Amino acid sequence: QAKLGEIFPDHGIAADDIAGDLSIGRRQMVEVARAFTLTREPLQLVILDEPTSSLDAHTAGQLLSFVRRFVAAGGSCILISHVLGEVLQNADRIVVMRDGKVVAADAASAFDRDKLVAAMGGAGEHQKAAAETRKVAVGALRVRARPARQQDGKELVARAGEIIGLAGLAGHGQTDLLLAIFSAASRARAGIEVTAPVALVAGDRQADGIFAQWSIAQNIGIRSLQRLRDGLLISPQREAELAEFWKKKIGIRTPDMNNNIYSLSGGNQQKALFARALGSDAEIVLMDDPMRGVDIGTKLEVYDLVREEAGKGRTFLWYTTETEELDNCDHVYVFKNGRIVANLGRDELTEEKIIQSSFGDTA
Questions:
Q1: 340: closest CA among 141, 163, 165?
Q2: What is the pTM of this model?
Q3: Which tens digit of pLDDT belongs to each residue from 77-104?
Q4: From CA 41, how far away is CA 83, in angstroms rounded?
Q5: What is the pLDDT of residue 176?
Q6: Is CATH 3.30.70.2740 the right assignment for the domain spanning 2-129?
Q7: Which CATH number fits domain 130-359: 3.30.420.40, 3.40.50.720, 3.40.50.300, 2.60.40.10?
């Protein structure tokens, strides 16, 4: 508990809280604090594997600040991360690995963002394309939603073909609103209007997304049972055809789509969840911070796919704790204490604005 408070001063976790009942972000905070807790021997090296993947920008900043203090005091840290900004800003040396091999290694000062993306197998143009203004044809209303705690007139509005971002500190109502919208698609809820079928891409895929005993193909097809039916049964052929189409479309790396879902890497598991949503009849796709801890190559592929599908008229509501991902969005709603406090257009979207709105009282 003492170490938890040292790393995350405003963590809000009680000593008698059940770890399994905590949110994924708070569970990660506990795990990090445990790693830094002293053993019988002085702690000299800590290996952190995607430690910020479930943390918002504020909490991630607290952790990285502590890591710098730990290193300044003589400790060493191996930081494994797909968040390029935190690697470039905090590492002394950077080692890039691809397909199990070291492809680049040098002092951090020898890299910039473009060089790092290129070394990781991505392409700089992808990131630039994400930041370019998309031409959005304003379509029909898809979602109108007011958070339960909203006291003023602010509400979230999303139309066909739009990519709408949800930002702010983690746990401030973004996921709650997505789940409320998901629920409202099947039964009426006060303050929420949904006009088309909905699919949800969960961020905590282990707890909320994956059917652990099923194959990759079955995990993809579960949201499309109506079109896969042959009479009263599911057609194995239709299920296989759907899975193979999305294997090629989204680049799921596996020799056989009948393999268990856990045979895939984390990034490919997340691709399968996207395939489930995009292969269905859903016109509205809710994304609950789905790209945390995913490699840059997979991210770039998914970013391209989201923009492509939005161009066809699909609506995306995208909650993310990675500020740079918001560059893909047409406009962004910032949340604080369960309320929308700002609605930022692309031309005013900066990390400073988001942080300012997250901690302030108004937009």
A1: 165
A2: 0.73
A3: 999 987 788 899 999 999 998 767 898 9
A4: 31
A5: 92
A6: no
A7: 3.40.50.300
